[in-house]
């Protein structure tokens, strides 16, 4: 790339990026069901390939793997929606009891640490918490959101079915579009890298999230925490959100333990064990197995979480890492955008650093600017 075109290409790229971000925000009602369908399609295809794996001479016939994968994903979606649907109403009904317990805990703390104070716990909580935080409204909004998503289930199922029909024709279409030239090999290379990186990421992340959810479920059941299955499912799902997901996932059941057991030893025990599980799996075991597969800077992950969370809410937060991984791979395959891949990378090398030809031109531009 010529030096005089470098900054022009950069300007066009960021302008295009902002425009695409605007389209993603405006087209959210249409795009979100389709993106969820793409995620389910990807899970079905990956699961079908896993079921076709030969183990000690036994192998499921290939024609059966796809139907089995569809059934398994459908059962998982049904169980998930059932747990959420059944527990939202029960949590809403329990809120008055939790409110009473929280008032009692607060009053005990006031009597212990400020015995001469005339502060009343009920008035204090009403003024500083309950009047500002509509818990029933939040629960109702969550129920409406889940209901709205369920209302689009048929549309998402249709999307998934058409994706399953179409995906085997994609290589043939790419061949005809690119005439098997340089662009074809580059496109195949990009798709292969995306598939390998996302496969590795989702496998390890799914195993880590399942392990975290199951261990948390056993802990919550052992101590008799209300709605243990719901909190365990929430921990499993929120673990896919980087950094803040595990914090939020742990906070919910710990806070429920606080108001349920009125600040007893169970609260401290549950909090300590759940935090230990998160640290053990999320901060020690998972990074050891995950390695540097995606090669994305932690700062970029946080910024991506904020950006996609703002545009698409919880779905954007869940998908921010896969989206950035795909973007990083695509950027690394084109000379004009390889520098952005380098900036995104965690190790400062990027996926295509050895092919950079623009760094000499960039140095010249910097020297000119300094002069």
Task: Note down, in words, how this protein is organized.
The chain has 371 residues and is mainly alpha-helical. It folds into three domains: 31-178, no CATH class; 181-290, no CATH class; 294-359, no CATH class. It is 81% helix and 0% strand. The protein has helices at residues 3-26, 28-51, 62-113, 121-130, 135-151, 153-166, 170-178, 182-223, 228-238, 244-260, 265-290, 298-332, 338-344, 359-370. Helix 9 runs antiparallel to helix 10 (244-260) and helix 12 packs antiparallel against helix 13 (338-344). The radius of gyration is 25 Å and the shape is globular.
Short structural description:
With 371 residues, the protein is mainly alpha-helical. Helices cover 81% and strands 0% of the residues. It is globular, with a radius of gyration of 25 Å.
Describe this protein with a few key phrases.
single chain; 371 residues; mainly alpha; 3 domains; 14 helices; 81% helix; globular
